[in-house]
């Protein structure tokens, strides 16, 4: 009997102690200046709202909602670095957003996009030739010094046989350094190759209007007028004996 009474008194003391603690905490908050009091109450409310909220990487919960940490931004439900792209609108003209990095849409022949640099660089099988101002296959000569004394280096290049069709078809071999003029159905078309692309496509100007298309495509350049690539040939890149 005595044990039960003592145990009951112990429970009552614990209850009183807990209530007293809550009273002291509440009183301590009430004694704070109004600005600090509101701040403390806001933090308590936010913590309670976030009790059952789980946020993803680079984010934290505030007032029951997940927000991105400083230096990050929201992108399709995740938080990415502020400088990374989320959509094409975050990139410059001529670039696409891939894996949150802006990379060039089209790289020249023997080049690949480098997301870190946001530019095209030579692919693994190529080297940059400053003399020719482009990437060339590693085994190709870059300058005359790469050849024997009685030889010279023939620059690496590529030419294409382009065809313009408008009822009749006219085809010509076009070199990037030598624009060609086509006459089809009484109309003149001045064609200049700007450069070849990594996917065997081509960037050209037809009557000063730019066109970019792949090797298997037919590009419209006027009403019922199309241009396409017939064949492509690699030239140069070797040492040639002087005559």
Give the SSE layout.
Blueprint: H1 2-30, H2 34-49, E1 59-62, E2 65-68, E3 72-75, E4 78-81, E5 95-98, E6 101-104, E7 111-114, E8 119-122, E9 126-129, E10 134-137, E11 151-153, E12 157-166, E13 168-174, E14 180-184, E15 187-196, E16 202-206, E17 209-213, E18 218-222, E19 225-235, E20 239-241
Antiparallel strand pairs: 1-2, 3-4, 5-6, 7-8, 9-10, 11-20, 12-13, 12-19, 14-15, 15-16, 16-17, 18-19
Which terms summarize this structure?
single chain, 243 residues, alpha+beta, four-stranded antiparallel beta sheet, 2 helices, 20 strands, elongated
Task: Walk me through this protein's architecture.
Strands 13-12-19-18 form a 4-stranded antiparallel β-sheet, with no helix packed on it. A hairpin with a 2-residue loop joins strand 18 and strand 19. It has a domain at 157-241. It is built from 2 helices and 20 strands. The N and C termini lie far apart (125 Å). It has helices at 2-30, 34-49, and strands spanning 59-62, 65-68, 72-75, 78-81, 95-98, 101-104, 111-114, 119-122, 126-129, 134-137, 151-153, 157-166, 168-174, 180-184, 187-196, 202-206, 209-213, 218-222, 225-235, 239-241. It has 243 residues and is an alpha+beta fold.
């Amino acid at each position: 009997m005595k044990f039960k009474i003592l145990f009951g008194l112990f429970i009552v003391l614990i209850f009183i102690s807990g209530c007293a603690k809550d009273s002291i905490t509440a009183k301590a908050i009430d004694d704070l200046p109004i600005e600090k009091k509101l701040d403390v109450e806001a933090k308590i409310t936010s913590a309670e709202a976030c009790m059952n909220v789980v946020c993803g990487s680079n984010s934290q919960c505030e007032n029951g909602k997940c927000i991105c940490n400083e230096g990050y931004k929201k992108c399709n439900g995740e938080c990415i670095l502020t400088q990374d792209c989320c959509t094409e609108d975050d990139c410059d003209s001529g670039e696409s957003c891939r894996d949150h990095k802006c990379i060039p849409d089209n790289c020249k022949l023997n080049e690949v996009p480098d997301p870190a640099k946001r530019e095209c660089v030579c692919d693994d099988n190529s080297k940059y030739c400053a003399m020719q101002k482009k990437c060339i296959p590693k085994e190709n000569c870059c300058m005359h010094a790469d050849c024997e004394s009685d030889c010279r280096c023939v620059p690496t290049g590529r030419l294409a046989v382009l065809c313009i069709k408008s009822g009749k078809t006219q085809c010509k071999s076009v070199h990037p350094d030598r624009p060609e003029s086509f006459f089809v159905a009484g109309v003149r078309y001045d064609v200049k190759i700007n450069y070849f692309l990594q996917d065997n496509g081509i960037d050209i100007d037809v009557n000063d209007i730019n066109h970019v298309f792949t090797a298997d495509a037919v590009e419209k350049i006027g009403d019922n007028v199309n241009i396409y690539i017939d064949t492509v040939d690699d030239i140069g890149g070797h040492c040639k004996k002087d005559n």
